[in-house]
Structures are given as structure tokens and as C-alpha cells.
């Protein structure tokens, strides 16, 4: 039980990555606070956690709403005694498949605005309590950590959003480290497990992701959950301002 007694907030908890994180955190003893915008979807994940003997609470919160995010974090800290882990994996609703030269400004800006705003708001809300505690772990998610452009597919503003969040992670680590707060990223290089079977580009995207790996497979949702548990646990107590490379060898570092 690597996370026994810890309180974790997962924003976007009903999504594929979010539910994997919730399951992993709860499986290692954390009380998980599931946050999202759809009550029924959150409750379905929480019910599975509870059925397996875990602890979970749900809250409908828009991660782009400053007041709502702050209010929820304050309630978690007051009701549970601490915020020990915070991770934001909400859907950035990006538009892909259109060349940048033909993309509208709105479509380009959308993932950048959502990713940076939600990461900033959720991190700030948790950090205020973690500073008081002088401990805590903040996790970011996404990207491959390589900083290379995508050459074989039009990805819009998505990669720009991930790079922006990645630098925000580094800056947060620098500013929060003195309070005992660690900030780490989880980089997968893409998870093909979650691609819809009827997606026309599924085969192309799968080959693009898997073809770059050394292990000849992509990371799974279970891989993400396992890496997140390690990152949030005391086993990684000396790690901050870095990313965990779970790209299956697509990125060498």
C-alpha cells in the first residue's frame, strides 16, 4: 500500500486515463476524489473502486472554473485533512487532422487554452494547501517528452499545449520545491489502447506511435497507473522537475 493515508484529487477522473489513475491510486490505499463534469460517469468509476474495497468520493466541477476549483480543493482539504496528490487529465477537446495553415484560430487555441488554464487552476488550488502542509505531489500528463514535431499527422495545437504544460511543470517544480512539493510529468508517447475501433485513422495512428518504440508496443492505461503510483509515493521522494518516460523506448533519455 504505497499511498496509504493519502488524499488524491483526479480531474477528468471518468475518462480512460483518469479512471486508470483512480483505480491505481485507490488500489494502493489512497482516498481518491474524482472530479469531472458528468455525475453518472464519475459515480460509475467510484462504484467500481468501492466494490474493490477502495475509498472514493465524487464531485461535479468544471476544471476551467476558477471559483469552483478553489472551492472544491478547500472542501477536500477541510474534510479529509490534506491534499497529497493532484493530477489533471481532463480532455482538451483538440481538433486534429487539419494542417496548421488551414486551421482556424479558435481550433488552434482551444487545446492550449484548456490545457494551460485547467493545469494552472487545479495546480494552484492544490499547491496552496500543499504549501501549508509542506508536502505533496502534483502530476501532469501527456506528450512524449522529446520535443519533436509530429511529421506524419496534422495534430493542430495539441502538441503545443503539451509543451506548454511541460514547461509549466518545470516552473512549478522550481517554485514549490522549497515547500517539499514535488512536480512530475507522465509521458507516454500515445496510448493506442483507447483509440476507437471505428476511427478511420486508427491503423495509421497506431503505426505512428508503436513504430517509434523499442519495445514494439505502446504504453497501456495500466502502465500509466503504475507509473503514477510510483511517482506519487515515497519511493520517488527524491524526484521532481522531471518526467517519467513511459514511451516504451520511443524517446531515449
TrEMBL record:
Record has Transmembrane helix as a keyword: no
Superkingdom to which the source organism belongs: Bacteria
Stored SUPFAM superfamilies: NAD(P)-binding Rossmann-fold domains
InterPro entries tied to this protein: NAD(P)-bd_dom_sf, SDR_fam
Signal peptide positions on this chain: none
GO molecular function: oxidoreductase activity
Keyword Membrane recorded: no
Coiled coil: none
UniProt KW keywords: Oxidoreductase
Family note: Belongs to the short-chain dehydrogenases/reductases (SDR) family.
Protein's name according to its UniProt entry: Short-chain alcohol dehydrogenase like protein
Species name: Saccharomonospora marina XMU15
Amino acid at each position: 500500500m504505497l499511498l496509504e493515508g493519502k488524499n488524491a484529487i483526479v480531474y477528468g477522473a471518468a475518462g480512460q486515463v483518469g479512471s486508470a489513475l483512480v483505480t491505481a491510486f485507490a488500489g494502493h490505499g489512497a482516498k481518491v476524489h474524482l472530479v469531472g463534469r458528468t455525475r453518472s460517469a464519475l459515480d460509475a468509476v467510484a462504484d467500481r473502486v468501492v466494490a474493490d474495497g477502495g475509498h472514493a468520493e465524487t464531485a461535479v466541477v468544471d476544471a476551467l472554473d476558477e471559483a469552483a476549483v478553489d472551492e472544491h480543493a478547500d472542501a477536500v482539504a477541510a474534510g479529509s485533512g490534506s491534499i497529497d496528490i493532484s493530477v489533471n487529465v481532463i480532455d482538451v477537446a483538440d481538433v486534429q487532422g487539419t494542417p496548421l495553415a488551414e486551421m482556424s484560430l479558435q481550433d488552434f487555441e482551444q487545446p492550449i487554452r484548456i490545457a494551460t488554464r485547467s493545469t494552472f487552476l487545479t495546480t494552484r488550488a492544490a499547491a496552496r494547501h500543499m504549501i501549508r502542509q509542506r508536502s505533496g505531489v502534483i502530476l501532469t500528463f501527456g506528450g512524449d517528452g522529446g520535443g519533436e514535431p509530429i511529421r506524419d499527422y496534422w495534430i493542430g495545437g495539441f502538441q503545443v499545449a503539451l509543451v506548454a504544460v511541460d514547461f509549466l511543470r518545470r516552473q512549478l517544480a522550481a517554485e514549490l520545491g522549497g515547500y517539499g512539493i514535488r512536480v512530475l510529468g507522465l509521458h507516454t508517447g500515445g496510448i493506442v489502447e483507447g483509440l476507437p475501433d471505428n476511427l478511420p485513422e486508427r491503423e495509421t495512428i497506431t503505426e505512428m506511435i508503436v513504430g517509434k518504440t523499442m519495445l514494439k508496443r505502446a504504453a497501456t492505461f495500466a502502465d500509466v497507473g503504475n507509473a503514477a503510483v510510483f511517482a506519487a509515493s515515497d519511493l520517488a521522494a527524491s524526484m521532481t522537475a522531471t518526467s517519467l518516460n513511459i514511451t516504451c523506448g520511443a524517446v531515449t533519455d
